[in-house]
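Reopening this ticket.

The earlier resolution said the output was attached, but the attachment link was broken on my side. Pasting everything inline this time so it's all in one place.
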Amino acid sequence: MCLHKPPCPSSDDADRDAARIVAFHPEQGWSLLCNGVIRFDDTGELLPDGRVIPPNRSARVCAAENARTAHQPLAR
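Inline output:
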């Protein structure tokens, strides 16, 4: 149960990812949010009731593209 003011979105809300992180395990690739959602680095999620939200491939592709181009020198 969230004790934040204002409270974090519930796990059933469309903006459930806006909840605060209460446990962060980057070495394992996941974070636990205040609303009980486990969010994975690949953008997939596990909801408290056991439902699985598959990874959002378009978000993962955009993140990979940004990482790939972030260290390229600027063209002159």
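Reporter confirms the inline version is readable. The longest strand covers residues 21-25. The mean pLDDT is 83.
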